[in-house]
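This part of the workshop introduces the protein records we will be handling. Getting from the letters to the C-alpha cells is the skill we practise here. The record below serves as our worked example for the rest of this section.

…
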Amino acid sequence: MKRVLITGAASGIGRCFAETLARRKAALGLIDVAAVGLGEVEQAITVADAGVETRVADVSDPVALSEAVESIAQQLGGLDWVVHCAAILGPGSFSEQAAEDFERVLRINLLGTANLARACFESLRDSGGALACIASTAALHGWPEMSAYSTAKFGVSGFCDAIRPEFARDRICVTAVYPLLIDTPLLGGADRAPILKQGKAISPQRVVDKTLAALNKRKTRVYVPGYVRLIAAVHGLAPSLLDAYGKRFALRRADD
C-alpha cells in the first residue's frame, strides 16, 4: 500500500489525486491552506473507507510545512510518494501588478516547492520514494500577463532538473509534470489571462492518471497531452514562433 502526501489537496487537481489514490487504497496525507475544503475532501475519502491524515499549512511557510509533513509521515509510517499541487495563478500585466502580488506567486509556487522538497527529503530517502511536482506549459515558454506564474513555473522546472541527480543518489525519483490547461477552479477567475482562454481545458483525471503511471515507472518528465513536448521543442528551436503566438492570442485587447 502506497503512502502518499499531496499538497493543494482541498480542490482542483490535488483533490483529484486524493480521490483517485483513495480508490486505489493508498494511505493519504493531505495538506492545504483551505481548512474547509480540506475537511470536505477528508469526509469524502473517509466515506470511501480510505485512511487519511490532513493538516492545514501554507507551503510558503517552511516551519509550518515541515511540521505538517513530519506529523503526517509519522502517522503514516513513512512516505512513498509526494505529489506537489499547491499553486496560485496571480495573472496580470507586469507593469500594473503590485510587487507584493508578484512576490506572493513566487513564494507559494516556487519557494513552496523548495520548502516541500526539503521537508519530505528524509522520508523519501528512507523509502526510496518519488517526488512529483506539477509544473506547467508556462514553464516551457513565458506567456504575456502571466509573468509571475511563468517565472515561478520555470523555476519549478529548473529546480526539479537541479535536484534530480542529487536526490537520485539517495534513490529518490524527481518527476516534473507539464500539463496544458487543466479544467480546475484555478482557471475559473474572471481576470484570467487571455492565453488561458485559448483551446479546450483537459480533465484533471487525465493528468492524474498519466502522473501516477509515470511515478510507477519512475519517469522524470510527464507531458499532458503528449504534444506538449512540441511546445518544449519549438521553444528550444524557434522561440520566436511562440512569441508571435503570444503576441496574437495572449495579450488583452482594448475591448476586453
